[in-house]
Amino acid sequence: MKKILKTEGANGLLLVSPTFIYAFLLLAVPIAAVVTFSFWTQNYLDLDTTFTLDNYRAAAQEPIYRVLLFRSLKISAIVTLATVILAFPIAYYISFFVPANRKALWIFLITVPFWTSYLLRIFLWKVILGYNGVLNSGLKGLGLIDEPLTFILYNMNAVVITLAHAWAPFAILPIYVVLEKIDRSLLEASYDLGESRLITFMRVTLPLALPGILAAAVIVFIPTIGDYVTPKLVGGPSGLMISNMIQLQFLKANNAPLGATLAILAMLAVVVTLALLWIFGKLLTWFNRNYFGILR
Question: Is the residue at 26 inside a domain?
Answer without folding.
Answer: no
